């Protein structure tokens, strides 16, 4: 059934493609004024992947990036450096609190913050240079500068060196990503009031850190500094943290973070932020209104979401439409309302995730080369890289209920998993939701060490329309944490063995 479904989906997509496959030359001229087959504005995960894939498919390609280093927000000041600090801070926390349980003892342990930051920077530098190397390998022309439309096929680039060039292309892909979203009346100075960018480069460990926003980024960065010794308070307007997460898993996740001494003030509104003194004073009130209170901090992290970076690109000049949130509506081939102009990643509707942008980039390039591309936005996994990690794909139990679907739930606690017990890291669970009549998996939610790795078995299962029994009857190596996924699957259609 799954293979037939995928075949039908591919045939549908093929029917949307007009004309025959086109042959493209792989010769590359040195002048940026020569017309390209594809020009990509933005060198982040969506943009650089689109550029590489387009070049691999035989299209003469140029990528324009204003930052001067490739990889976008994700690689330079987002996903990659944050994961470096999450890992380093976790190692420190483990050394201080759990190594003795494993028989590893020493007299003292301390944080060398400059060394920790240097390790993070080294990882970022190596990866950005690696992407530039991939451009050279695949013959992608790389232009460093800020690009703006002057026509649907021409981009004016103010180069980093100070000059200006015009880059021409038959097809232009907008892949400019997203930017930080601040709060009204709050100025981010990246010192006391910081965005995620500033939170990745603090020169000292704040005694008190307030995080405004209980989403993925806020919890990850709050977790870093909490492990290193900060007193962290998360202020969230909504009644829950990570509102897109499965409710049962979210509650257990919040309890775990509270055990790690993170504090939460939910249904709370930030009225004002005062930086007139040495520290920061936040005036708060209940989201529904009521008495105000003061919360003091050394540093405040604004983590209230991100906004598409679509302004100052000259979109209005060529008539590209945007919605009220600044996103660019596109069709199934990533085409905007202006012929020859396309958009991918964070600038279009959908989850603002690096891996989603990469999939957009590949699919868009395939369409432009006359091939078939496809991204299933219902099967984009999400991961919170705290410890334990939380990962999910598909629908939550709340979403399944709202749809009126009869379903079964299978759960397995990590406390009953052999590998998790042997390493003394057994907090969390695996939860599988499947349709009652067919046993088809609808959603999988994991809270566990390395949940971000474990989730991909579930992503593949949902992609091919698997049942919980399909996973349960697949042999899993012992002892592994992946066995918890198998056991949860067994609990969904029958009964688990080890609980």
Protein described:
The protein has 499 residues and is of the alpha/beta class. The protein is built from 15 helices and 21 strands. The strands form 5 sheets. A 5-stranded mixed β-barrel has the order 1-2-3-4-5. Helix 2 (45-56) runs parallel beside helix 10 (354-368), helix 4 packs antiparallel against helix 5 and helix 4 packs parallel to helix 7 (216-227). The active site is at 478 (proton acceptor).
Short description:
It is built from 15 helices and 21 strands. The protein has 499 residues and is α/β, with parallel strands linked by helices. It has a five-stranded mixed barrel with strand order 1-2-3-4-5. The protein has a five-stranded parallel β-sheet with strand order 7-14-8-9-10.
What is the share of helical residues? 25-40%
Number of strands: 21
Name the strands of the widest sheet in spatial order.
1-2-3-4-5
* Share of β-strand residues: 15-25%
Instruction: Give a quick account of the main beta sheet: strands, pairing sense, barrel closure.
Output: 5 strands, mixed, barrel
- Number of DSSP helical runs: 15
- Shape label: globular
Mean pLDDT: 93
| Terminal residue distance | 32 Å
Return Rg in Å: 24 Å
Class based on secondary structure composition and strand pairing: alpha/beta
Low-confidence stretches: 1-32
